[in-house]
Amino acid sequence: MQIKISTRHGSISDATREKIGEKVERLNRLFERLTSIEVTIDMERRELPVVDLKVSAEHKHDFAATAQMEDIMASIDQVIHKLEQQLRKYKEKVVDRHRGSPSRESGSPSRESGSPSRESGSAAEESSEVASDSEPAS
What we know:
By secondary structure, this protein is of the alpha+beta class. Helix content is 59%, strand content 24%.
């Protein structure tokens, strides 16, 4: 997994870069299929820096979040929290789909609705057979 930390209109210390890298690396524990993480810190307004976080995952479009607070690290924490929520929601959605697939095969509503029509068709065939059997008996 690649982690890219960049700044606009200013710079941050190496220690801050390391802390940010450690924090965003935790996202990989939440969702294993992350391919890259990009953190962009816009310091155009130094009193309110804007932090953008973009995460790319396999088989999925990018996840993105933005936060703007007085402190860079507080912004990082907030943007990570937002992304964690997005990743959890996506992961639950994927897991629910996979859990739901075996039950769909064993007895989905579409199959159940299809089977009564078959039964009614076979019942109609049986009644016609009975009628044909009764005709020669007359």
